[in-house]
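Hi Y.,

Following your request, here is the sequence exactly as I used it, all 373 residues.
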Amino acid sequence: MSQCNLVSVQALPRPLNRILTDSGSEDRPTGWPLLSPGTGQRSSRAGLPRPVGGRAICADSAPEAAGGDTLKQVGLEEEYPSAGRGGLRAKDVGRLLLRCADRPGLVAAVSAFLAGAGANIVSLDQHSTEQSGGTFMQRTIFNLPGLTAARDALEQDFREQVASRFDMDFRLTEAVKPKRVAIMASKEDHCLLDLLWRNRRGELDISVVMVISNHPDLADQVRPFSVPFLHVPATKDNRVDAERRQLDLLRGNVDLVVLARYMQILTPQFLAEVDCPLINIHHSFLPAFIGAAPYRRAKERGVKLVGATAHYVTEDLDDGPIIEQDVVRVDHRHGVEDLVRLGADVERLVLSRAVLWHCEDRIIRYGNQTVVF
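Below is the corresponding structure, written out as tokens. Let me know if you'd prefer a different format.
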């Protein structure tokens, strides 16, 4: 058992609590990929209640390792932040995302199905990659009284009546249920704290279920947000063991992992087993200034722009589908510290946009690109 100097134990949601207190296997819910029409039952999406209190733990520690406290199971009803843009996050609002080969009649078929189910279409965005013969993508927001009770049957009917006919990949979600998000960080705090702050203000309609870090440095800063802080030491020397413990924490408990300046490379095996999307943020100097001290090297080169890129994580390092980018102009009067400060500002903004759009089901991936509605 490794040493951990963090203060004590955070009361954790029940599924995560079982993982940390029981080494035995258990059934775990999975994330929400786009569903192909040929698939069977979708995986369970049991949510984690939002934790209360605020003390950090070390993921290596036994339940009694911190002052005799135990990891108590909590059964609190999950609380959601206030309604988002336009007040559309009502209990009967659904989101339908789909992707398929373009052909005539797709919009009509989807609209007719929803109308036949008694749904009212609130908004509809669509895009085709070509005028003909391309890939068609659509995001539909609809209102259907009693959606929660009807959701499973609606999804099955759509698969059989529409998706199978047009060979669609699709995803159907309820706007009232926030995505469960885990944030991974190292020592830099700007992106992590910005996400937690926006979530607390209700700007990010998500449920942050845990923060995982390979360093204990940020525990005190996370504590006021009442989110479990899990210290899992990770270096290139213990990567396999560290990723195994991280996977035990993440699998089935989250719908999205955000790498908020997490400074470790994740292996292809980890990406294959985590069973949910990952979003990463980095400076936009790639590939020109890779490695350590990119802002110093950028200053030496005399750059005129500082930017950031948020993208989905794939096995190809820093080459996943881009979600959002932004830049700010700089000039000869800006020193290295100015570039770092301005770069951190852009990173915060770009990452928060990417997380928001993903959790509002605005993004459809195709190939190594994204469409953001």
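DSSP finds nine helices and 16 strands in the chain.

Thanks again,
Q.
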